[in-house]
Amino acid sequence: MSAIPSDKPWNVGTFFIGTDLGQKVDHSTVGVVRKDADVVSLVHLKRFKLGTEYGVVLGHMKLLQRTLQTVHRIYIDRTGVGEFFVEQATKEDLKNVKGIMLSLPEKENIMGYLKGRMEKGLLRIPYDSELINEINVERYEQTQTGQTKFTHPNGTHDDRLWALALAVYASGPAITRYVPFAAFGHIIKPLWQFSEQRYPYRWNPAPFNAARYCGTCGRLTTSDHEMYHKR
User: Fold this and answer.
1) Rounded (5°) CA angle 115-119-120
2) Considering the domain boundaries, does residue 3 fall inside one?
3) Is the distance from CB of 29 to CB of 163 less than 8 angstroms?
């Protein structure tokens, strides 16, 4: 099944953008989702090279706003230098921009909402091995104060994950009901839907794999796959 419904052109509809900022250590990444009824589909994910100037990221977001029919909301990580980026985005006429301070409680809200969409089958994404890997290696732990801290192993990144999470969070209600992330249990593999659909920009095609994988164990769904779960 395609991650992008084919009943209308990809750039027609209501869109939400999430931007996770980085530069020297982490990558800046922009994610875009389209909302059709209750279903949210990832239609664009752009990760910039390390050291990319924020002006380039901002220019890409302005291009998206001109190309997409309706950008309803843009959520930008305003932690650290993000405050200046949000102000600059507003000055350069990006519409419906909101800076999100990625504090521990806010991260818990964002990741909890993303996981809830996944578990209800309301999130569709093309097969992207790097994004899937970021989701699967992300870990959380409870701090002594009872808050949830998200981490990823050394040598890995989670910028794609947070750009997607911010975009999905932007697609939700303006005031999201708080649900402790621990209530969702451990990080699990979502039921990925594979697609030949490409991302809308020729310089950023979506990785494609025609094979189908089990969302529970991650193995190829071969003819004897069900026997594996009966062992």
Assistant:
1) 120
2) no
3) yes
pTM: 0.73
Query: Is residue 44 within 8 Å of 63, Cβ to Cβ?
Result: no
User: Could you read off the pLDDT of 66-121 as tens digits, one per residue?
Assistant: 999 999 999 999 887 778 899 999 998 899 999 999 888 888 899 889 989 988 99
Q: What region does 203 belong to: left with phi over 0, alpha with psi -120 to 50, or beta?
A: alpha
- What SS3 string covers 172-222? CCCCCCCCCHHHHCCCCCCCCCCCCCCCCCCCCCCCCCCCCECCCCCCECC
Q: Determine phi and psi for 70, rounding to 5 degrees.
A: -140, 115
Domain contains 4: no
Q: How far apart are the first and last CA of the chain?
A: 29
* Residue partners of 117: CB distance under 8 A and separation at least 6: 40, 123, 168
For residue 162, give its domain range.
Answer: 14-229
